[in-house]
Amino acid sequence: LRKHSNTHSDRILRGEISPCAATAAPSREALGMLWRSIIHCGGRLSMEKNALMERLAPFMWDERICVGLKVFEELGLLSLGFDGENISLCCAESGKVNLEDSEILKSLG
Q1: Backbone dihedral angles phi then psi of residue 70, each to the nearest 5 degrees
Q2: C-alpha distances in Å from residue 96, one per residue of 63, 72, 99, 101, 107
Q3: Phi, psi (5° rounding) for residue 88?
Q4: What is the pLDDT along the chain (109 residues), one digit of tens a residue?
Q5: How many Cα atoms are found within 13 Å in the side-chain-facing hemisphere of 3?
Q6: Strands (DSSP E) along 29-73, which ranges?
Q7: The 86-91 sheet, strands edge to edge
Q8: Which of 35, 74, 77, 93 has a 20 to 30 Å separation from 66 between CA atoms?
Q9: For the chain, what is the radius of gyration of the CA atoms?
């Protein structure tokens, strides 16, 4: 089982990320697994939020998945859309990035 909170994950997807227990930064390893899962799914997904999170990373808390997606968006690795119910994402053509450049991760410590 994994912890689930629509309230926190929705706020994160809208860009309202604040340092708190619910938005603890995912580990570098978890971000790597999340990224590989996105690539394994073809790099382009659009589906209901909970279904997408379960498909991408059933091993992670929803809030951390959302933080990871926002970090990837911030670093230019993907474009991300959220309409309140559905998430759409598309990987960019960019190469490697340095996770330490992420202001989101810096703010979450």
Answers
A1: -65, -35
A2: 24, 11, 9, 12, 22
A3: -125, 140
A4: 444 556 688 888 888 877 665 567 899 999 999 999 999 999 999 999 999 999 999 988 888 999 999 999 999 999 999 999 999 999 997 778 899 999 999 988 7
A5: 11
A6: 44-48
A7: 44-48, 86-91, 78-82
A8: 93
A9: 12
